[in-house]
Design goal:
The structure holds two protein chains of two kinds.
Chain A (H helix, E strand, L loop, with lengths): L3 E7 L2 E8 L5 H8 L18 E4 L2 E4 L12 E3 L8 H13 L8 H15 L5 H7 L11 H14 L1
Parallel strand pairs in A: 1-5
Antiparallel strand pairs in A: 1-2, 3-4, 3-5
Chain B lengths: L4 E3 L4 H8 L7 E4 L5 H5 L8 E4 L8 E4 L2 E5 L4 H6 L1 H6 L1 H8 L4 H4 L4 H7 L7 H6 L3 E6 L2 E6 H4 E3 L2 E2 L6 E7 L5 E6 L10 E7 L6 E6 L6 E2 L1 H6 L7 H14 L10 H28 L1
Helix pairs in contact in B: 11-12
Classes of the chains: A alpha+beta, B alpha+beta.
Chain lengths: 158, 285
């Protein structure tokens, strides 16, 4: 089935895509149409958070989102985090705390955390941030190192 | 999965007209899509037309005196982030925070949760305890139903052909709480959840339980045990025992019926005490 035109601004660059089927997921548009493989497919059912991206600044599960539902939006993926001051700080905190092993869940964690920091400013405590990261699964670290990365961020903001 | 057409009407009338282009099941509504998306990729026959509500002007939150009206397509995260909602409906805030994780709540909606009527929804017990009303609009006009009448069973509602959920109304702020038991705090479904609220106008308690297929239910027997706004220890324990005695809790892959009845009883006792403690704390300030 042919689809309609889809326009997305991805990491600051506008993309116009034709014939995008109505059933296409944002996750698949990002990975297969745009070739940005940093966004990971985990469970494809909204349970793991690996596919988290920012849609107009709000963290979003790209596996549960039809691409046309966010037509005209501004999208940020892990590839856009290198040029983002908050994104760089979060990634450096993850590196310093050793908050990853296999790395598969890391893009989702970074985007979810950047979304929270933007949404809540510096007012949130580490415990609140960790509770709000509850939708992201990590099967390697046991979360202790991720908690340390969040604590490092709090220290930098203080 | 069958391929489907995604249509995005820009008016309520156009959305109602879209719904009448096919039988229920052939044409489905899409609000946040976080529950529907899962079904859309299931093997086997699916809808041939998906009607997105994103262009309708229903992402609203209004206070009219004590009455809170929430537009059906407002993301749950917006409701959660409103400071007045948490202050005046503490149990509703707790129930919202039990749904998925933050990225899911950026898209999931109250209207979608009601319309999809998932048997283990974490919002429906709280809506029952708050006596929420569902405002519908359809080919023959508008009408309102209590959540209790709106919910028929698992994945079944009183929505008539061509009808849409426009908003959900909460008639009054109530001291309230929402307690749940599940395997994982986020992105999981409660094995059992209990909503408790105390109406300041009629002085009566509302208790509801969720996570018990086929649908969330009120607990009238347990409510009747709580004979005042400040029930005695004996009354609270009686409410908990009546919960265990009357709950029609099925056994499924998430929990046994016996475990559910035990949990519901424990959570009812804790929920009532929690509302009483919060009220005592508020009065002490």
């Amino acid at each position: 089935m042919t689809g309609e035109r889809l326009v997305l601004t991805v990491n600051g660059t506008s993309h116009t895509m034709d014939d995008v089927p109505g059933a296409e997921r944002l996750l698949d548009t990002i990975r297969w149409r745009l070739g940005l493989k940093g966004t990971k497919e985990g469970c494809r059912s909204g349970e793991c958070g690996a596919c988290t991206v920012l849609v107009d600044g709000a963290s979003t599960l790209s596996c549960l989102t039809l691409s046309h539902e966010v037509d005209g939006s501004s999208l940020t993926t892990i590839e856009g985090m290198a040029n983002d001051p908050v994104g760089r700080t979060v990634q450096e905190a993850f590196a310093r705390a050793g908050a990853l092993q296999c790395g598969y869940c890391t893009p989702g964690f970074v985007l979810a955390l950047v979304g929270l920091l933007r949404e809540r400013g510096s007012g949130a405590s580490s415990d609140e941030l960790l509770a709000d990261l509850g939708g992201n699964l990590c099967r390697c670290t046991g979360y202790l190192a991720i908690a340390r990365a969040v604590a490092l961020l709090q220290k930098e903001e203080a | 999965m069958t391929p489907f057409a995604l249509v995005t009407p820009s008016s309520v009338d156009a959305a109602i007209a879209e719904l009448r282009t096919g039988a229920p099941g052939e044409v489905v509504l899409l609000a946040g899509g976080t529950d529907l998306a899962f079904d859309l990729e299931r093997p086997g026959p699916g809808p041939r037309r998906v009607v997105s509500l994103r262009r309708l002007p229903w992402r609203t939150l209004d206070w009219n005196g004590a009455v809170l009206t929430v537009g059906s397509t407002l993301p749950l995260r917006s409701l959660e982030r409103d400071p007045e909602v948490g202050r005046r409906h503490p149990g509703l805030l707790e129930a919202i925070r039990a749904v998925g994780g933050v990225p899911l709540r950026h898209r999931a909606t109250l209207g979608g949760n009601l319309g999809r009527a998932a048997p283990a929804s974490d919002l429906l017990p709280m809506l029952l305890a708050l006596d929420a009303e569902v405002d519908l609009v359809g080919p023959t006009g508008a009408r309102s139903l209590s959540v209790d009448r709106f919910l028929i069973g698992s994945r079944r509602t009183a929505l008539a052909e061509g009808e849409l959920i426009r908003s959900v109304r909460f008639p009054e702020p109530r001291p309230s709480t929402y307690l749940w038991q599940r395997v994982r705090p986020a992105n999981d479904i409660s094995q059992v959840a209990v909503a408790a609220a105390l109406s300041p106008t009629d002085g009566r308690w509302r208790l509801a339980v969720g996570g018990v297929p086929p649908r969330a239910i009120r607990l009238p027997d347990a409510e009747a045990a709580l004979r005042s706004t400040t029930p005695s220890e004996t009354e609270v324990r009686d409410a908990a025992e009546r919960t265990a005695g009357h709950l029609p809790a099925a056994t499924d892959q998430r929990a046994s019926g016996e475990y559910r009845r035990h949990l519901a009883s424990v959570l009812v006792e804790r929920a009532v005490r929690s509302v009483l403690d919060a009220r005592a704390g508020a009065e002490g300030r």
